[in-house]
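hey so u asked for the seq, here:
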Amino acid sequence: MLATIKRNPRLKWALVILISLIALFFLFFGSIYFGMWGKIPSTKELTELEQNKATQVLASNGDLIGKFYIFDRQPIEFDQLPTHLIQALIATEDARFYEHDGIDNRSLLRVFFKSILLQDDSAGGGSTITLQLAKNIYGRRDFGMFGIVINKMQEAVIAKRLENIYSKDEIIQLYFNTVPFSDNTYGIESASLKFFNKHTSELNMEEAAVLVGMLKASHYYNPRIFPERSRLRRDVVLMQMAKYNYLSETEAEEAKMRPLILDYKSYSNNKGVAPYFREQVRKDVSKILDTLKNTDGQKYNIYRDGLIVHTTLNYEMQLLAEEAMIEHMSELQVEHENSYGNYAPWIRNKDILNAAIKRSERYQDLQKEGFDESEILKKMEQKHPTELFEYTGMETRNVSSIDSISHYLKFLNSGLLAVSPENGAVQAWVGGVDFRFFKYDHVAQSKRQVGSTFKPFVYTAALENGMDPCSYFSVREVTYEDGWTPSNSSSEGDDPNMNYNLKTALSRSMNTIAVKVLMETGIGNVISQARSMGIESDLPQVPSIALGTASLNLGELTSAYTSFVNNGHYSKPYYITKIEDGKGNLLAEFKPEVSKTRAFSEDTRKIMLNMMQATVNEGTATRLRYKYGLQNDIAGKTGTTQDNKDGWFVGITPQLVCVTWVGADDHRIGFRNTAIGQGANSALPVFAKLMQKMNADSEFNNITNAKFQTLPSDLAELMECPPEERDNFFERLFSGKKDKRSNNNQGNKKEEKKKGFFKRLFGGKDDN
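ran it, structure tokens below
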């Protein structure tokens, strides 16, 4: 043999080249193995694999409402993987998976020689599931012309170590937990939830085939973007399953005939259910995690550590609340714009537009870059294709940044908060009409004047301080200090000789009487009453507070109203019940905050509820009955602020307190008139539509069928008096001018027309 080689120079050189190539291969492989091209994880490191995992936010029933992540990944156990999913993967990606040790040696040599000698970038292929797992975990780096060879060899070393550490089932589990899918989704559980809105364990065979089919090229076979392409790829997977006897030919053909049906759910920050709520949860959880440390002594990371946040949110009610708001606001927006026509303040009032321009992120970014105002405005006047929000659908227009800002100024916004009165558990939270374009959360961040929704505090304080429910007050206007003369918004207040009892005055929201009741009760007493019901914001000590000139947020107002259906105890809204790590270990737990002291007596509570039921049955909120056809037991209060800037409604049922607000983000923009802007027209319909939807769903029967207690006979008798009384001839003759005098007493002077108990009993009248 040696003699033959010596006599044949060509054979000699061929042997030299072969030995050199083999030596070169092993030298090259050794350089990779020992980390000259980058460290390869050790066996110990591979036994401690830890991938970034998404934190999940769950509704009260365990439904997923959102995630916080860098990589959208939710690991699951092997026993949660359906058999047909595993079979689809093996049939399509690695038919010999259970026969090899993680490496297909023939394929590896083919890649080496074709890549080095032929410079063929398409020489890949033959990757086993274990090799793909190595790539999924550690990714690939750019090594120039030798990149594919180096990466493949590194993956081969890692794959061999993985096979020595993990069983085949564990490798399958790791693979499915790390493999990337479309739309920034990692792992089979996240993909299953996103594309089919179900857990992996619930996937049927066709759905499993769709997801496995995406692995060949996740974007190219994205079923959301390319449904037909994805369907054809699904069919290939099904035929592969038949080829390897996981299915019969008949079963595969039958499965191919079924349509591809998605139930796509986006879990991005801007989309999906309850985006405003999720953002508030993110802020709160981040603060909570700053106070906690994991077993390594490090702070938890909300984006990486795969935590589980349990909340009180009612998933179905949240969906209905969002639907109700959009349905109403899309109609109200048209009314709002039509009422102004060409005289809209967002068009004519340049101060409003200029202020919005300077508040914009674009303006402030350019300012930080050193541009002066004229340069900034010039840049912001440049037109470019922009996607703009409209209720009828997104529109792409060629507009400038200034045009875009002006466009969004016209929009009304809204907020809704619904809680269980017994403990304050948040059931629904809608911070605005669309989180993508209106980030400001009107539940968590906004404080607005509350209008007539403050009046129940006044009447509650009056009852607590001994005022008879059948006290009568004149609707006549009175001028108070600083020349302030409150008036009534309805024609019912035009008759200066008419007097209403408390129930009628509250249900019809008579402004003049509310201020008189305040002054009779004492401003200090009213403020103290509001404080005892959970109001913490500043409350001005002026007569106009009776009409809601104080600015409160939805949480405060909601909390205060819970006391009317929670035995006089207010419940603060709460929404996070507990935080767990990915293994279910409890990290933090939270309990309801319910006031320990009653804010008022049980009699006062029942009387106030009865009076607010009258608001719905015969007062300013009657459209709940005649327009929306609601027959539920409901109490409530409408509210409208000065110049129709804000519309409010508080809806109360025995099992739910819901506050809705509607207005413009810029306080200088109000409704054109009271007919459109009053709370009964602007805010009440959101609650009404929500109740309609809940009435149609038996899931909410415990709320919609709940009844208020009947007013006890003694209290019913106490309130048994005519709703209104006109002054007689002599009262009109001698009191007509008196009530026009200035009232500077700050709440100590009695101006009201009041009947005492005995005079009521015998039918007489007071003289004052």
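The radius of gyration is 35 Å. The CA atoms of residues 286 and 447 lie 24 Å apart.
lmk if thats what u needed
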